[in-house]
């Protein structure tokens, strides 16, 4: 069920149907609609999520099912965890490095705007041993249905060089299921 723009329609989405579809298919993202100023999708948790996403758009996140630990990196570089319970709503401003972590049987509704010309999403991984920046992936996201998060993960975890810390030499292991 993907919304096609029409002035004669006002879409009504059954979230339970979107959740059921993701659970049954194993897919990670279901785009509900994607318009010039509005992008809304349901995401299923990734048990291996570890990167920080830097989005050029503000995000509103609603925890449909389960609980999310939203890791954020503050301006001073320190990390904080914001717990978003089932039914909880969160606002994450553009430019804030954040990492929504929740299990594959949990589901999140995300609403943001489509990227403008020249904007790019960034995905950053930090060394689990010394907290140095390990790697950054940058994507121009013109269509969220292409699942840029999965592509960023593949690029990172398929490269031992990207996963090896230049500061302390630690190599982040490649998790199962990526």
TrEMBL record:
It is an enzyme of class 1 (oxidoreductase). The keyword Oxidoreductase applies. Signal peptide: none annotated. Transmembrane segments: none annotated. One of its GO terms (molecular function) is 3-hydroxyanthranilate 3,4-dioxygenase activity. Its EC number is 1.13.11.6. Its cofactor is Fe(2+). Pfam families: 3-HAO. Keywords: Dioxygenase, Iron, Metal-binding, Oxidoreductase, Pyridine nucleotide biosynthesis. One of its GO terms (biological process) is pyridine nucleotide biosynthetic process. The keyword Iron applies. It comes from the Bacteria. PANTHER family: 3-HYDROXYANTHRANILATE 3,4-DIOXYGENASE. Catalyzes the oxidative ring opening of 3-hydroxyanthranilate to 2-amino-3-carboxymuconate semialdehyde, which spontaneously cyclizes to quinolinate. This is 3-hydroxyanthranilate 3,4-dioxygenase. It comes from Amorphus orientalis. The lineage of its organism: Bacteria, Pseudomonadati, Pseudomonadota, Alphaproteobacteria, Hyphomicrobiales.
